Amino acid sequence: MSTQDRFFIDRLAIVGVGLIGGSLALALKEAGCVGEVTGIGRGLPNLNLALELGVVDKITRELEEGVQQADVVFLATPVMTIPDLARRVLPAMKPGAILTDGGSVKGEIVERIEPYLSGEVAFVPGHPIAGTEKSGAAAAFPTLYRDRRCILTPTERTPAAATALIRRMWETVGSEVVVMDVDKHDRILAAISHLPHMIAYTLVNAVGSYDHFEENILEYSAGGFRDFTRIASSDPAMWRDIALSNRQALLEMLERYENFLGELKRDIAAADGQKLFEFFLNSKTLRDAIL
Ligand SMILES: NC(=O)C1=CN([C@@H]2O[C@H](COP(=O)(O)OP(=O)(O)OC[C@H]3O[C@@H](n4cnc5c(N)ncnc54)[C@H](O)[C@@H]3O)[C@@H](O)[C@H]2O)C=CC1
Ligand SMILES: O=C(O)C(=O)Cc1ccc(O)cc1
Asked: Which of 119, 163, 203, 244 would you call most buried, defined as having the most Cβ atoms within 10 angstroms of its Cβ?
């Protein structure tokens, strides 16, 4: 599978050849670090497109058959589908192979997969912190993971050698790997990724449903509205799964957000210019520092 100095995966299977799975395949191919890539999915049009675009070398809709020869199997389907797919894939994989995933929420995935681990196949939970609002094989591109982070959340059931190999896989495609526990991952992502998506979806719905005027007011949107709401074009099924799978941490962040919004409303109602200025300045300082 790999030598001491050169990282190489002989056979990789990608379940769900979309933005995340497809981009990993393309990046490993570009780096010359993968032999054969099998794309596994449900819909033939997307699989055929993946084949045509050179994202994968072989396609199949037969899950168990598709993973049999793989050294590494990457699950890159919506979060709620990952545990059931893992349960079917694990007994079909060869001993010594590694199962990993790219799901945006880790707690439920780890909890629902670990009881099915037999010890013959290692499971390394992962989450590349890179993406766009686009989906499907056509959206995949080889540089998606360059200069990004990838979080791995191994548990005491995860062999260190398997974590080390998946770490190398992500480093090979240009990501900095960070290891943390599952709960910390889900709380951080609830704050920095899941909450912003909920706010973007809410904003578009709130403004888009405002029908006081005859015209569609979204047509007046300037750069600010467009920048802020790009992520509201993300796949609805993917985000339904994320919201349900990370419910507790997300609800806590939504409540925190409601409190801040309440404070803003009170300051506007009270015409408290000083408080508003401080609120905006504090936000600007925090945001400018991340750029
Ligand atoms: N889109 C993003 O920016 C990011 C997404 N993720 C996570 O990566 C995973 C994949 O997301 P994307 O690649 O964006 O989605 P995508 O929609 O581009 O690709 C997912 C693929 O999985 C297929 N699929 C769905 N259910 C399936 C099933 N039961 N069996 C086989 N194939 C199935 C779909 O047909 C599609 O081709 C999700 O868990 C998501 O939360 C992680 C980081 C970033
Ligand atoms: O499009 C964007 O800017 C994103 O935020 C992409 C994204 C979506 C889901 C993730 O779990 C990680 C990254």
From this structure: 163
